[in-house]
Design a protein that fits this description.
11 strands; four-stranded mixed β-sheet; single chain
Length: 227
């Protein structure tokens, strides 16, 4: 039996996905995507399960705070020369140059924005976002192709791949076999990008983070824990 139980810790409320089954021990796991799963013996009542979860609430809060640091929080930029931007895990300085032709180009240690609207923040923001999006689509698609052979061996295939800017997730997988990648992911190092790609693709076959999910992850990416 599966059910979502809400656990309170101070002013915070944590939704916990509970799984009651024929097992002897009670366990709680907080995953990097901040999903909380509790595995509970089926002879334990829901009331007792809530009591056990309340005892673990402080620990749950600590883990949630830890993983919160790694969520893709988008900080507001001013889009001025000298600001720091990341691409594939490397740091670059933004350089604004006046030009009649609009473009964004990567040169050396700089991301150059060419535009006649050098003081227009929204215009510069749109230009660099389009550049990041184009790079994300191109690069992530290429990385997917790199692992396509292993995906096929495991009978894993997406119906559609989408890209959009997301505030709180690196990627997502729907029950309709549609994977969506955050265009901000292209700012991260390659080894991180590959992990997110493989993680989401495995969800096409196993939606939950169970043993089969992790066995498949071990097969495709043996060093996933290190990543």
């Amino acid at each position: 039996m599966k059910k979502c139980i809400k656990v309170q810790y101070g002013s915070k409320t944590f939704p916990v996905n509970t799984e009651f089954s024929r097992r002897k021990t009670f366990s709680v796991t907080v995953y990097p995507d901040q999903t909380i799963v509790a595995k509970i013996p089926d002879n334990v009542s829901e009331k007792r399960a809530l009591e056990l979860l309340k005892k673990k609430s402080r620990w749950i809060n600590e883990k949630m705070q830890y993983f919160e640091k790694f969520q893709p929080i988008i900080k507001e930029k001013h889009y001025m020369s000298g600001e720091e931007f990341y691409y594939l895990g490397r740091q670059y300085r933004l350089n604004i140059e006046r030009s009649s032709k609009e473009a964004v180009k990567l040169k050396g240690k700089f991301i150059n924005i060419y535009t006649s609207h050098t003081q227009d923040k929204e215009k510069k923001k749109q230009l660099i976002y389009k550049w990041y999006r184009a790079r994300a689509v191109q690069y992530i698609t290429r990385r997917i192709e790199l692992y396509s052979g292993k995906f096929k061996k495991r009978g894993i295939e997406a119906k559609e791949i989408r890209f959009r800017r997301m505030k709180r997730r690196w990627g997502s997988c729907s029950s309709k076999r549609i994977i969506t990648f955050n265009t901000e992911l292209v700012r991260a190092p390659v080894h991180c990008i590959d992990y997110v790609i493989i993680h989401e693709f495995i969800h096409l076959k196993y939606m939950k983070h169970g043993n089969k999910f992790y066995r498949t992850l071990d097969y495709i990416m043996p060093d996933w824990e290190l990543r």
